[in-house]
Structures are given as C-alpha cells and as structure tokens.
Design brief:
The chain has helices at 2-24, 69-72, 108-111, 140-150, 182-187, 191-197, 226-239, 260-263, 268-280, 285-293, 296-299, 310-318; strands spanning 39-41, 46-48, 56-58, 61-63, 94-100, 116-122, 158-161, 199-201, 214-215, 247-250, 256-259, 305-306. It is of the alpha/beta class. It has two domains: 39-72, no CATH class; 94-318. Helix 4 (140-150) runs antiparallel to helix 9 (268-280). The N and C termini lie far apart (74 Å). Keywords: Signal. Residues 65-80 have a biased composition (Polar residues).
Amino acid sequence: MRSSLRLLVAALALMTIACFYFQISDLPNFTNPLRHIPQVDHASTSITSGDDSSSRSAPGFHIPHTNNAAEDSNSITTDPSPVEDEGPKPPNDKAVVMGALSIDDVAWATTKLRGWDAFVYTVDNDTAMPFHTDRNKGKEANAYLTYIIQNYDSLHETVAFVHSHEFGWLKAWHTDAKQHSNVKSLNSLNVDFVQRNGYANLRCLPNPGCPDEIHRLQEPMDESKTSEAVFAAAWREIFDNDDVPEVVGVACCAQFAASKQQILQRTKEEYLRMHEWLMNTELDDQKSGWVFEYLWHIIFGQESVYCPSLAQCYRDVYGAG
C-alpha cells in the first residue's frame, strides 16, 4: 500500500513538472533579454550590439547597422589592446602631421603606417630634429600650421593632421576606429574621398561638436563653451573680416585630412597670418587651440556646419557600407 502511494506521489510530481515546462515553453525567448540593446563596457567605453548579423564593416572598424541616427551615433566598437604592425608600407604621396612632447612615443608613425611620410613636430624643444615648433603654444594648431607654412611649395597630395596618441582610451577617445587607433584610422582612410572633397574629418561620431557647437548670437552667452565666448573676436582677427558664421558645427577634435589642392586654395600669407595670431593671442592654449578646432573645416573649404550623417561619413571616409 505504501509502495503504491509513493508511486502515485512521484507520478503526480512528474506531471506537475511537465505541465510547468510546457507552460513556460510557450513564452517568448528571454534567455538574453538585452540581446538587442547596446551593451556598454565601462572599462573601455565600448558600445556593441548583441546581434551583429547585419553589421557593416571597414578595416579596423565595426559599425552595427541601424536605421536610427541616434543609435548610429554611438555604435562603433573599441578595444584597449595595442595595435600590431600591419605589414609592409606601400609607397604613396601621403603625409601625416602631428605635434608631440619630447617624452611621447611616436614610433608608430614611422613603423605602423602604410605609405605615410611622418612629420612629427616636437613642441617643447626648439632644437629637436628633424622637426620642431619655435614655441610650445596653441595646442596641435601650432604644429599643423608650421607644417603647412614650411612645406607650402612641396606638399604631399594628401595630408592627415592627427594627435600623437597611437591608440587607447582615455588618451585617444576621440578616434573612432577599434582600439581608438590612429593606425587603423589612417590605414583605412579613403584617400580618393579626400581628393574629391578636399577635406575629411577623421571623426564621424557627432558628439561633441555637431550639429551646432557655436552660436554667434546666442544670448545669454554660454560661458561653459570657451570657444563660443571668443570665437567671433578671433574670427575677425584671423580673417580680417566680419563674416562670422551664426552657427558653427563639426565633430571634434581636430583630427582630419586635406588634399594638397585644397590647402593651396589659401595663400601662404594667410597661413602665416593664422600662425601669427596663434603665437600672439592672449588666449590660453586651451582656448586658442579650441578656436582652430572649429575653424579647420572652414579653412579647408567646407560650410560652417559640417556634420554628415554617421553612415555617410563612414562610407565616405573609411569605405564602410
């Protein structure tokens, strides 16, 4: 009798478990409820999508596909690991220009870039060879303008202007490529687009800077935006006119490429005037460098607001899509 009772209890238990299983099997799949929500890796500020089946890619890039511009604006993956040497460098008529401190490791510019001649300007030693600036003033704008002035009559066909950081968060957070790598960014650059357009911002992610970082007539003045507070006055001094744009927008952070033809659209005297302003302004380095950050695209022939969509920028600048 007891044996039969035990068998009955066991059978009822099995039936209960089976019933529960079949009930939950009809529910939606919640094995990974965040599968389609971008995942943020706070250690490397990496943002990835759980489903990569429809992703677009370019060398060194991973761009999850969406139909939403807001999602696209935060959709490139990064990795803090170092970049390996990517093989032999084919000859090409390209120059990469940067300013660097004496202590910066900039060997990557000559060992890891394919087909680029490096012009590394030491900014804190006015006897450094082969290139140096006369003063450590004006952030990266000093090195960029010094290169243009010194090489105006012998420019490379394509010139990239970048910071001295090779890769990695936090130093190179403003570089879009995986690992925040300037090596991957430059080795993936679509030179044909630079030649057609005259200018290419190497950063496609719109923030900060787009769509309207600076408002000439904004009242009250936003004192937290230091470039906005001085931009109009700086424009008048640099360009000697009052044609200050009412709105200026461009993705930060002064890393871009320009064609020789576009650089030569301005005279050497104009670049000398810009450099003279940079050396003589009473603005501190942060403010004077920031002014040029929002001028480069205009200097090289673009409208005051230069904010292509993320997808368009990746297609044009890096051949993604």
